[in-house]
Specification:
The protein is α/β, with parallel strands linked by helices. The chain contains 11 helices and 27 strands.
Length: 488
């Protein structure tokens, strides 16, 4: 694959606004977000169908908020369920329960406060269905990239199915072995989290109850742990087995049966079916940069996590959610192209933080809990976080923080935020507001509400406070609008 400047490839090429390479959760989330903004997005996928496994099964609370905004939270909740309590086994006897994470209850400002289990294949189906509902094109399968070129005005991709696509921008959402990242010459820096290989498989075990996440610690002679988790909304279990004895995982039915019989009280033929299986070595790595010209990296193409703590898929969805509104603002909202520079500036340090968290959870150095729910993540250090108030108490909501939910009129703040627009929210003040483009900015007023304090808050389309002031005349609000809307 090549990356260079060309002009002639543009002739007679089909055109779209954004070419999304990869139909995983990252690519499909991005396409949904773009299409609802009136941006043409084409998703191409080298495989012949969507990924078939459960791999990224944990939907963290912050991602549930994203799914609420995209209009698919009800479908995700219907397809999934809560995580079961762990059960420790030894010599065929139950030893007691083990809770995988610190519990948290939903609150007024954080209505989604527990991880939701949805097998990755089902999440992708939900996103694909939503893309069609929004009027987007279906995924173009069997269309892996063979060549990618770019110039000052756009990118051109040649595909394995013989087609050529011309787009204003391209996004690599094609996984940890990203062909786009390789073509761009962007390095991946990281470390091996655990040298021992791991088998993960979706299996059918009718003889095993679905009340618990069944955990089988390593025997004295070694071999590694084994865990069997019932997958909510399905008849399947996700089996995870570590190999510490120097052997390599066998992903066949007989191989899976052998390891189950050796490490649990179950018989080999209790495993009636292997529906999907894979093996990997846990590692943590991050791309040296998230952008090259008109091409962006997102999801596993930009960062690879240990699966511990369920951060990989969620961090990837956050990439798409951050990039989607910015591409929409530039392509349809009149914003200057410089707005796109904030994607890497915001997401790279965020991804680095989550990589470190995943590694610590894997190594038993940190417990799943508040940090893994991702509600505390934000962009306070971003150029898009403008805080004009002074003397704020410790713990106060600031520009760059996630905008909390709460009552708003007869509904909720999340109802007011939902959609591709900005929201100008006044809290506990009747300050006058400047003239606004009501297509781009919706205005809502609420009374005093402790999670916000008093003031005026401009909430970005991705649910973070962009600008905050004591009143709407505070410095920088007009300049902020120019940055995200241009001169409109």
């Amino acid at each position: 694959m090549e990356l260079n400047s060309v002009k002639d490839a543009r002739i007679n090429a089909p055109e779209t606004d954004v070419l999304v390479v990869g139909a995983g959760p990252t690519g499909l989330t991005l396409a949904c977000d773009l299409v609802r903004r009136g941006v043409r997005a084409l998703v191409v996928e080298r495989a012949d169908d969507l990924f078939p496994g459960s791999r990224g099964k944990g939907i963290q609370p912050r991602t549930q908020e994203v799914f609420d905004d995209l209009g698919i939270i009800a479908a995700a909740e219907a397809a999934g369920g809560t995580y079961p309590v762990g059960m420790i086994w030894k010599d065929g006897e139950r030893q007691g329960e083990h809770r995988m994470s610190d519990e948290a209850q939903p609150t007024e400002d954080a209505p989604y406060n527990r991880p939701l289990m949805v097998p990755q294949w089902r999440t992708q189906e939900i996103l694909r269905a939503r893309l069609k509902e929004l009027g987007g094109d279906d995924v173009r399968f069997g269309a892996g990239l063979t060549e990618l070129t770019q110039d000052e005005e756009g990118v051109t991709a040649r595909l394995a199915d013989g087609g050529t696509v011309r787009a204003a921008y391209a996004v690599a959402a094609d996984g940890g072995r990203s062909t786009v990242r390789a073509a761009l010459g962007i390095g991946m820096t990281g470390e091996t989290v655990d040298p021992n290989p791991v088998l993960v498989a979706d299996v059918r075990i009718p003889a095993l109850d679905r009340d618990n996440w069944h955990m089988f610690p390593p025997a004295a002679e070694g071999g590694g742990f084994l865990a069997i988790c019932p997958l909510a909304g399905t008849a399947d279990f996700q089996l995870t087995a570590q190999f510490t004895d120097g052997t390599h995982p066998d992903t066949s039915l007989e191989g899976v049966r052998k390891v189950v019989a050796a490490r649990t009280h179950l018989a080999a033929d209790d495993v009636t079916e292997v529906r999907w299986a894979s093996d990997f070595r846990p590692r943590a790595a991050m791309a040296d940069r998230f952008r090259e010209g008109r091409v962006f990296l997102a999801g596993d193409a930009a960062h690879v996590h240990s699966p511990a703590g369920g951060q990989g898929l969620n961090t990837s969805v956050q990439d798409a959610y951050n990039l989607g509104w910015k591409l929409g603002a530039v392509l349809r909202g009149g914003a200057p192209a410089a707005l796109l520079d904030t994607y890497e500036a915001e997401r790279l340090p965020n991804a680095a933080q989550m990589l470190g968290l995943s590694t610590r959870v894997h190594r038993g150095e940190e417990r799943r809990g508040e940090a893994t729910r991702q509600l505390g993540l934000g962009y306070r250090d971003s150029s898009l976080a403008v805080e004009t108030r002074t003397g704020l108490p410790e713990g106060a909501l600031r520009a760059g923080d996630r905008a909390p939910d709460g009552p708003c009129g007869g509904g909720r703040l999340f109802d007011a935020f939902r959609g591709p627009h900005f929201t100008l929210l006044t809290v506990g003040t009747d300050t006058e507001l400047p003239p606004l483009n009501r297509e781009l900015v919706r205005v809502h007023r609420i009374g005093a509400y402790p999670p916000y304090g008093k003031g005026v808050f401009l909430v970005r389309p991705d649910g973070y406070v962009g600008w905050a002031g004591e009143d709407a005349t505070g410095p920088g609000l007009a300049d902020y609008f120019k940055l995200v809307h241009g001169e409109r």
